[in-house]
């Protein structure tokens, strides 16, 4: 999330904040990479998954690295913005592109479903000679 947020900040000419966001992304990526390698070396039954070898994970690492280098290069040549000490806050609630969930409500019971009707469906009272043909 910090990587893509950094790309958005760079596109809106906030290069200093983009660098800080990408540095935070790099930090979390390194932590995730260590956890993935530890998970891949775990012994146990079944097939072993290696999350650090998945395409998304490999592409994300190079994307973070390349975007951070681009931001640092452009900040040195064009923007000359100060890199903040704290990472920018991520907006976790999406306000576009999502549909509001509709709460589920059970439909009203039909008048034919009386307690007597429901009791008639007792499977323990079925005929003994109930063979499928």
Automatic annotation (TrEMBL):
Gene name tied to this protein: Brox_2
Species, as recorded: Alaudala cheleensis
InterPro entries documented for this protein: BRO1_dom, BRO1_sf, BROX
BRO1 domain segment(s): 1-104
Family: Belongs to the BROX family.
Source species, domain of life: Eukaryota
Protein name: BRO1 domain-containing protein BROX
Family annotation (Pfam families): BRO1 (PF03097)
């Amino acid at each position: 999330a910090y990587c893509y947020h950094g790309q958005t900040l760079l596109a809106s000419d906030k290069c200093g904040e983009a660098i800080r966001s990408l540095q935070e992304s790099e930090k979390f990526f390194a932590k995730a990479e260590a956890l993935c390698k530890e998970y891949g070396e775990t012994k146990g039954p079944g097939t072993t998954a290696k999350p650090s070898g998945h395409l998304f994970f490999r592409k994300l690492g190079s994307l973070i690295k390349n975007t951070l280098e681009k931001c640092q290069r452009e900040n040195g040549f064009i923007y000359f913005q100060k890199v903040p000490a704290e990472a920018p806050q991520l907006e976790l609630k999406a306000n576009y592109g999502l549909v509001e969930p509709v709460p589920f409500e059970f439909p009203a019971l039909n008048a034919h479903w009386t307690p007597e009707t429901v009791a008639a469906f007792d499977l323990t009272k079925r005929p003994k000679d109930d063979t499928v043909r």
